Amino acid sequence: MVDHNLNTRIFLTDGDFRELFGDQIYRLVGLMNAAAGKICPPCNGYCCRNINCGFYSEYFSTCPIFDRRPRECRYHFCNEVFNAAPLTKDEKDLMQQPVEELICGDRGEIARLFFLFPEFPVDEKGLISLGIGDEVAKIKAEFENGSISQDIAFARLNKLTF
Ligand code: SF4
Ligand code: SF4
Predict the structure, then answer these.
(1) To which H or E segment does residue 149 belong?
(2) Measured distance CA(107)–CA(88) in Å, rounded
(3) Which atom of ligand 1 approaches the CA of 45 most closely?
(4) What are the phi and psi torsion angles at 70 (to 5°)?
(5) Which stretches within 40-88 are classed as H helix?
(6) Angle of helix 133-144 relative to helix 150-159, nearest 10 degrees?
(7) What share of the chain is helix, strand, coil (3-state, %, to 5)?
(8) Best mutation site among 77, 122, 136, 150 for ligand 2, i.e. most ligand atoms within 8 A of its Cβ?
(9) Cα 43 to ligand 1 centroid, rounded to whole Å
(10) Three-class SS of residue 117?
(11) Residue with more model confidence, 148 or 83
(12) For residue 101, how far is its CA from the centre of ligand 2 (angstroms)?
């Protein structure tokens, strides 16, 4: 049984994502993540920067909220990653279907709700609507001017996702 509170939750754990998308997609996304781990680092956050993520800083070594990143991040891979991941043709076809088609039965309602959130939820506008825009910007500025370490910045940013 799906926890319907997950429908509107922005920040997801691995377990939340698995519950929302099911075991098969969770496993395939895990394979994509493994491929991304080898391909993404030289990009230095190309996707995060281009989607205007409020949590992104070019000076962070990685995503500061990796374990609680939104579903949009968890389900995003460029073609290069997609092609490199060791998926069968059927698995790739499955990954390419719209989220709506992936989800059936009890999960159908979740798919419909996804389209109520067509914008990236943690860009500047999204963070303001979540009421954490100023705090995220303040923590990043403190890190970037050397006042706090990356560990402290990550801990404080993660606290804002609960
Ligand atoms: S998903 Fe692709 S474009 Fe985005 S950071 Fe990774 S390799 Fe770069
Ligand atoms: S929350 Fe998503 S877009 Fe933002 S830094 Fe993390 S992975 Fe990148």
Answers:
(1) none
(2) 25
(3) 5
(4) -65, 165
(5) 46-50, 71-74, 79-84
(6) 180
(7) 60, 0, 35
(8) 122
(9) 6
(10) coil
(11) 148
(12) 25
Strand partners of residue 123? 53
- Classified as helix, coil or strand, 51 is coil
Residue from 28, 70, 54 nearest 125 by CA = 54
Name the least confident of 48-57, 90-99, 104-113: 104-113
* pLDDT at residue 65 is higher than 90: yes
Task: Give the model's pLDDT for residue 5.
Answer: 60
Residue 2 above 50 pLDDT?
A: no
pTM: 0.84
- 16-53 residue pLDDT tens: 989 888 898 899 999 999 999 889 888 888 889 888 89
Q: What average pLDDT score do residues 87-116 get?
A: 61
Cα–Cα distance, 146 to 1 (Å, whole number): 46
How close is the Cα of 40 to the center of ligand 1, in Å?
5
Please state, in angstroms and rounded to a whole number, the distance separating the CA atoms of residues 123 and 107.
26
Among 13, 48, 52, the mutation site with the greatest number of ligand 2 atoms within 8 A of its Cβ is 48
* Separation CA 33–CA 15 (nearest Å): 15
pLDDT the model gives residue 9: 82
Q: Whose CA is nearest to atom 2 of ligand 1?
A: 78
